[in-house]
Every structure is written in C-alpha cells, then in structure tokens.
Amino acid sequence: MVQLVHVSTAYPRQTDLVLRDVSFHIAKGENVALIGANGAGKTSLLLAVTGILPICRGSIFIDRVELSKHTARAVQRKTGLVFQNPDDQLFMPRIYDDVLFGLRNRGMSQEEAESRMWKTLNRLGIEHLVDRSPSRLSGGEKRLCALAATLVMEPDILLFDEPTVFLDPRARRTTLSLMQTLSHTKVVATHDLDFVHALCSRALILCHGALVADGDPAVLFADSATMAEWGL
Ligand SMILES: Nc1ncnc2c1ncn2[C@@H]1O[C@H](COP(=O)(O)OP(=O)(O)OP(=O)(O)O)[C@@H](O)[C@H]1O
Ligand SMILES: [Mg+2]
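Above are the sequence and the magnesium ion SMILES. Below is the predicted complex in structure-token form.
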C-alpha cells in the first residue's frame, strides 16, 4: 500500500538530507508507528509520502502507483495527513467551511459534500462544533475537527503526525479508541510509546533521516540500550 524504495531527500535550498536511503513496505490495513528523536525526519517522511515534500532520489509507490508529477493528483487522493498542529489544517472562518473545502474543491456538489460532512462529524461526535470558528476551539476539539477534515475525503491511508501531543488523558483515550475503530492503513509519527503499544503492531525507527529498525514495537522498545543510541 505504501512503499518507499531508496528514498533520499532534502528541503529546498538545503544541503543536509532529511531522509537517507529509506526503504520499506507497508501492507493494506497495517498500523505502523514512526518513531525517532526530535529532528529524526518523521514529519518529513509523512510530507514525502503525501507528495508535499518532493524527493531527490528513489521512488514512492502508493497502492502500486509511483508518485510523480503526472500521478500526484490521483495518488494524493489516497492519502490523508492529520497535521501535528491543527492550525496548519484549519484556516477557514468556520469548521463547516474547513470540512467542506476539500470536497467542494474536488468538484463535489454542495448537497453530497454536506451529507458526507454530517456523516463524518457524527462519527466523531462533533456536529455541535460545525458553526464554530477554529480559532475559538480547545486543542482537543481542533484535533477532532482536523481529523474530520481529513476523514471526510475518504483516503485509504491515514498519516498522523503526533496525534496525542497536548491532549489530556481523556482526549488521548478517545483518540486512541477512535483510531482503533478506523480500518484504514495508518502511519503514526509519535513519541508516545504507550500509544504505539496500544495501536501499532509494527514500528519503524528513524535516526538522522535513516531507517535504523523495522519490527515489533515490544521487542524494539525492550532493548533500552539500543533505543538510547537512537536518541530515544
Ligand atoms: N521546512 C524546513 N526547511 C528546512 N529544514 C527543515 C524544515 N522542516 C524540517 N527541517 C529539518 O529537517 C530535519 C527533520 O525534521 P522533521 O520535522 O522531519 O523531524 P521530526 O522527526 O518530525 O521531529 P519532531 O519529533 O521534532 O517533530 C530536521 O533537521 C529539521 O530541522
Ligand atoms: Mg515532527
């Protein structure tokens, strides 16, 4: 479903590589954690998979189609990124506009888009926030609205960047059980190792942009000496 083959990249006008020769394959329905110290390249990897950060070398395949200039639009429809900071995702006057924006942009009719919007807001239990301004929501509420804006697009692959950071214990539990009910293929960048244990059967560990481990989180995390070498 998501395959990287010898992917390396740097940000525009930068010389330092943020991803170094990264290769892996994630099958349909897998829940995979992306672990690594601050600056290891987790967010960059998610941006590369969604086609936001262009890659310098290697290939990315989404559902067997290689991500390229020509395929970007079609391939991007298959992935949905929930940003670390919901303020990067919610920018319209009302949640209503934010959740509808992507669908209307795709040319969907107002009626169909609204029906999908209500279904999604319902699922997340946030219909009551529909007319609110994103700037006046709590951190946890914003998170749910950003997730709604992503889910409404019905991507096959969900990419989460630090989904539990700044959440209180209750919101964290709600997020976890919600994510457990989503049958999508999921890649979750996080520092929250308990969350990984509860959700993911596999972890990829990045260190200075390189993939240094790929395996069972319980086994990887138990080796504290090696984890410390990776800055974890
Ligand atoms: N827009 C940018 N332009 C240039 N360099 C960047 C940019 N964004 C990130 N970087 C650099 O790329 C490297 C990887 O950053 P990235 O954000 O992918 O790390 P991360 O693993 O997500 O870290 P964190 O745990 O702090 O979120 C870092 O050295 C960072 O300074
Ligand atoms: Mg990050």
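Residues 11, 14, 18, 36, 38-44 surround adenosine-5'-triphosphate (ligand 1) (CB under 6 Å).
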